[in-house]
Amino acid sequence: KNEVEQSPQNLTAQEGEFITINCSYSVGISALHWLQQHPGGGIVSLFMLSSGKKKHGRLIATINIQEKHSSLHITASHPRDSAVYICAVPTQGGSEKLVFGKGTKLTVNP
Amino acid sequence: NAGVTQTPKFRILKIGQSMTLQCTQDMNHNYMYWYRQDPGMGLKLIYYSVGAGITDKGEVPNGYNVSRSTTEDFPLRLELAAPSQTSVYFCASSPLTGNEQFFGPGTRLTVL
Questions:
Q1: Which residue of B has its CA nearest to A36?
Q2: Bridge-partner residues for A14, per DSSP?
Q3: Which of A65, A88, A72, A58 is nearest to A22 (CA)?
Q4: In Å, how far is A68's CA from the nearest CA of chain B?
Q5: CB–CB of B48 and A97 under 8 A?
Q6: Is it true that the peptide bond before A8 is cis, omega within 30 degrees of 0?
Q7: Is B98 within 8 Å of A97 when comparing Cβ atoms?
């Protein structure tokens, strides 16, 4: 069964800073998910990627399949980016079942 | 489209009571999931379904039951509530295996 580790657990930044959140997993996968959980509790999917890099606005996700590692970057961070960011991978291979990291709580101060 | 809807938003149960958490999606997704989220822990899969009439256990199924009689609905049943079932419950759906999952707003359940 896959295991997911995220770092850091908590991250505080000043508005405008470049943010990096890391995710490592133990078993080869078909795709990795990054999700955002708003302070109000709602969860939305940000990215699903299986190789290389994806960009959406100020968010960039990268993955290194060989090293079993992914990063989520936020450029020019803003207080509205404050949320918990969650990494998830299939329990094994291309399974429809996901295992989730514990999340990284990001606080961006003005 | 409303996406994934869950009811109720909040509920307090007494030990031993039963209840059903409702989940409905209007995106015609085949895959549906129930997760629980405990403080400081990652989401954990309770049950999932790959289509109407087909359900399977996830990582933490004890104390719960599900059914999937239609594509749209995937209710989660708690038969004898216990304090250990105090959690936030999320329902999610996706069109295909390995695809992006769409989450409902969650149900906060407290068992006293």
A1: B103
A2: A109
A3: A72
A4: 17
A5: yes
A6: yes
A7: no
Q: DSSP assignment of B37-69, as one string?
A: E-TTS--EEEEEEEETTEEEE-S--TTEEE--S
Composition of chain B by helix, strand, coil, percent to 5:
5, 50, 45
Q: What CA dihedral angle connects A41, A47, A53 and A58, to 10 degrees?
A: -50
Number of CB atoms found within 10 A of residue B96's CB: 11
* Contacts of residue B61, Cβ cutoff 8 Å, sequence gap at least 6: B46, B47
Q: What is the pLDDT along chain A (110 residues), one digit of tens a residue?
A: 788 999 999 999 999 999 999 999 998 888 899 999 998 889 999 999 999 999 999 999 999 999 999 999 999 999 999 999 999 998 876 677 899 999 999 999 99
The amino acid occupying position B87 is S
Rounded to whole angstroms, the Cα distance separating B40 from A84 reads 11
A87 interaction partners in chain B (CB closer than 8 Å):
none
**Beta-bridge partners for B44:** B36
